[in-house]
Design a protein that fits this description.
By secondary structure, the chain is an alpha+beta fold. Helix content is about 45%, strand content about 10%. It contains twelve helices and twelve strands. It starts with 8 loop residues before the first strand and ends with a helix.
Length: about 400
């Protein structure tokens, strides 16, 4: 750490990011767009908009509605999902959702008008099976510490960080202590007993921020944002986001994973295959939890995508608006289908009773049929987006 930097610096008042716990703000269960929204809100960026919290964009030329929802669309999460081609793996890891693992992060912040650097920890990335070639740089611990300290101490800007506590989900570093040996911030998993309880390296600030010592091995990458410049016009930003959504939905394979529409086909086949479920209880429960994560991811992604597309159609960001409305309608239908899938097992969740109900042969046949409907709805939505961009 440079001698001019204080030993401790904390940016107070950065909005907390977390799984839904009630309150005025809608669920924000995707770390990347939530972290971007909180970053922008902390810096007073007029991009931020949310009708539920009465904070709407101050600039009338930026009519894309919910900033969290727009982050989902811009990053590619709105219509993208992945499914491993032969193993049951968690389907929501952002770094696996595009051929370039850095692309969702770069695109997720571009609407702010901020340049960014995506900087990796080569050892941690390698342990995850992520190629670090497209990262702006691979940093050792002193280098990564220096970049975090400089962003916070010199510029007063939080840093987006993957991991720190728990899985490689995006969170926020809002401060440091002991010259950067301790990171301070928000993580989606800081309250999860399996990740934070009884860990001597994790403690908490009075504000609720986590304190994490020995953080480097648990931090695969950071995203450092520069000074905000002019944002792209709303139509340009939306067009770029739609083109990216279409490209991902129509990319059938990303490394070892199926992507987009092909992932829905693979998920449906896995649910319908009795051989993948005639297994011990613990295996069935673990697989149902992965299935349940896929349902929740798609439900939230499509809902927010529909909100943004309907908002953009209202303001006629892309004309004529009919195809944006058609895609938004498909998003609403897809959201409803995910609730229908949950209801096959008695409702949302993956407790033991729901696992028992949802893994019978009859239930899985019904679930597979609903996934097939979801695939057809998504295909219609993507076709609408293609026609919208074609004018």
């Amino acid at each position: 750490m440079a001698a001019s930097h204080p030993n401790r610096r904390v940016l107070e008042g950065v909005p907390r990011i977390h799984f839904f716990e009630g309150g005025k703000r809608c669920p924000e269960d995707f770390g990347l767009p939530s972290a971007v929204r909180a970053y922008a809100e902390y810096l007073g960026d007029p991009y931020v908009g949310c009708t539920n919290t009465r904070t709407m964009a101050a600039e009338p030329d930026w009519m894309l509605g919910c900033s969290y929802g727009y982050g989902i669309l811009a990053s590619g999460l709105a219509f993208q999902q992945v499914w491993h081609h032969h193993e049951w793996r968690y389907p929501g890891e952002v770094m696996r959702m595009a051929p370039d693992p850095t692309a969702p992060y770069r695109r997720g912040v571009e609407a702010l008008g901020c340049p960014c650097e995506v900087l990796g920890n080569g050892v941690a990335l390698g342990a995850l099976g992520i190629d670090g070639q497209t990262f702006d740089a691979l940093l050792d611990e002193p280098e990564m510490r220096a970049r975090i300290v400089a962003s916070i101490a010199d510029h007063g800007r939080p840093v987006l960080a993957l991991g720190v506590i728990g899985p490689s989900e995006c969170g926020l570093v809002t401060g440091y202590d002991e010259g950067g040996d301790v990171l301070i911030g928000w993580s989606y998993f800081q309250g999860a007993p399996e990740f934070a309880a009884n860990d001597p390296d994790i403690a908490f600030e009075p504000s609720g921020y986590y304190r994490r010592r020995h953080w480097y091995p648990h931090t695969p990458a950071i995203i450092v944002l520069g000074e905000r410049g002019a944002r792209p016009p709303a139509k340009e930003a939306l067009s770029r986001a739609l083109a990216w959504s279409i490209a991902l939905a129509r990319t059938p394979a990303i490394g070892e994973y199926h992507g987009g529409l092909a992932a829905l086909d693979a998920w449906r086949a896995a649910m319908a295959d009795d051989a993948q479920w005639d297994l011990p209880w613990e295996v069935r429960r673990a697989r149902y939890q992965i299935h349940n994560a896929m349902v929740g991811q798609i439900a939230e992604a499509r809902w927010y995508a529909g909100v943004v597309l309907a908002h953009a159609a209202y303001y006629e960001e892309i004309r004529p608006p009919e195809h944006l409305l058609g895609a938004a309608s498909c998003c609403a239908a897809g959201h409803r289908l995910m609730w229908d899938i949950w209801n096959v097992a008695g409702g949302i969740g993956d407790d033991d009773d729901k696992v028992r109900q949802g893994t019978t042969s009859e239930a899985r046949v019904r679930i597979a049929s609903l996934i097939a409907e979801m695939r057809a709805v998504d295909a219609r939505a993507i076709a609408h987006l293609e026609r919208a961009l074609a004018g």
